[in-house]
């Protein structure tokens, strides 16, 4: 099979016209295509959610509008998502230091990162051998997670030092263990979520209480880690300039406990996280937990509405409705009421 010849920008424009039915011409549109990139731009925005759901563009400017919509969303969300990440790490840090009176990872590991103990089969009775095996398997699974966490923490430090990270270099060069706050600086949001999930239940309950999560919405003390996991994919997509407008960045289903907790306090139902509107709600929910000002929360909602209206004005209704679902106005209205309460 012969290898296809690479196409110049002019060739790509002809390809879009002749093969994709998209009207594109002139130096202005050529420059826009070059600026957004054919492979990063067109290839990433030619579909919604899945590659099989192609967008029926007829004009190049429609594609540009979706591309701009996505870029504006990332600019809007970025500072707030980073604020949430920093604040969550600081809230957890405060609990860890308060509970152990130490910044030493080994102390924290021994005293608090022992969630596996609640699954111990010692001195427990079981109906049958099968039930006992399941309990033993759960204990082994949780213990392995704890050991994996320790290995991850050491690997993060090793990689940071090898890459010239100033924090890691400062401590490790002096043969001093990194304090827990420095370790948190090195952890990705996903790794941080894994860390929190290994904390014992009492510690997780303290974190949940400190965040102000309603006890009835977090009876198993797993909401903090689930909020972290729910946020991490959005955070990573924004940080790496990936597409976010259609939530394709989700790496898995978001736990229903998150949806239920948010619905219970906001009155907003049908939170599937299949639309970017639901991620706005997730961000606002956490900002309110973290006591962000009403002015700041209203600013992000207003910014979102402006971006959405700009998209509505520049693409056909059939395309707009695939991106912004019909329940968006009602969800935004309830979100505004939630902020005001």
Count every beta strand, where a strand is a DSSP E run of 2 or more residues: 0
Strand content: under 5%
How far is it from the N-terminal to the C-terminal residue, by CA?
A: 65 Å
Outline the biggest β-sheet: none
- Low-pLDDT parts are none
Rg, nearest Å: 24 Å
Brief descriptors of the model:
341 residues, mainly alpha, 67% helix
Topology:
Elements: H1 9-20, H2 26-36, H3 38-45, H4 60-100, H5 105-111, H6 129-162, H7 166-172, H8 180-186, H9 189-197, H10 201-211, H11 223-239, H12 256-266, H13 276-289, H14 294-314, H15 317-323, H16 328-340
Overview of the structural elements:
With 341 residues, this protein is mostly helical. It has helices at 9-20, 26-36, 38-45, 60-100, 105-111, 129-162, 166-172, 180-186, 189-197, 201-211, 223-239, 256-266, 276-289, 294-314, 317-323, 328-340. The longest helix is centred in the first third of the chain and has 41 residues, at 60-100. It is globular, with a radius of gyration of 24 Å. It starts with 8 loop residues before the first helix and ends with a helix.
What is this entry, summarized?
The chain has 341 residues and is mainly alpha-helical. The chain is 67% helix and 0% strand.
């Amino acid at each position: 099979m012969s290898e296809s010849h690479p196409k110049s920008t002019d060739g790509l424009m002809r390809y879009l016209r002749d093969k994709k039915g998209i009207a594109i011409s002139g130096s202005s549109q050529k420059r826009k295509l070059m600026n957004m990139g054919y492979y990063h731009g067109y290839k990433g925005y030619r579909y919604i959610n899945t590659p099989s759901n192609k967008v029926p563009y007829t004009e190049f400017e429609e594609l540009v509008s979706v591309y701009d919509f996505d870029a504006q969303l990332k600019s809007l969300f970025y500072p707030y998502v980073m604020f949430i990440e920093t604040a969550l790490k600081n809230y957890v840090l405060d609990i860890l230091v308060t509970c152990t009176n130490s910044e030493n990872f080994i102390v924290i590991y021994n005293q608090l990162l022992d969630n596996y103990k609640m699954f111990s089969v010692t001195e427990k009775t079981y109906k049958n051998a099968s039930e006992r095996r399941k309990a033993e398997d759960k204990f082994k699974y949780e213990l392995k997670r704890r050991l994996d966490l320790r290995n991850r923490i050491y690997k993060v430090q090793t990689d940071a030092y090898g890459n010239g990270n100033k924090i890691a270099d400062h401590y490790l060069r002096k043969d001093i263990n990194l304090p827990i706050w420095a370790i948190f600086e090195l952890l990705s949001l996903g790794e941080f979520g894994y860390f929190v999930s290994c904390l014992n239940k009492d510690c997780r309950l303290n974190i949940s209480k400190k965040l102000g999560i309603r006890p009835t919405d977090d009876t198993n003390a797993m909401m903090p880690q689930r909020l972290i996991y729910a946020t991490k994919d959005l955070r990573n997509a924004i940080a790496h300039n990936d597409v976010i407008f259609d939530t394709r960045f989700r790496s898995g289903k978001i736990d229903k406990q998150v949806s239920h907790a948010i619905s219970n306090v906001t009155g907003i139902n049908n939170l599937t996280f299949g639309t970017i509107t639901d991620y706005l709600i997730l961000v606002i929910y956490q900002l309110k937990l973290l006591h962000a000002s009403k002015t700041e929360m209203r600013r992000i909602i207003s910014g979102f509405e402006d971006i959405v209206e700009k998209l509505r004005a520049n693409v056909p209704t059939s395309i707009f409705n695939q991106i912004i679902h019909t329940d968006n106005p009602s969800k935004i209205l309830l979100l505004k009421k939630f902020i005001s309460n």
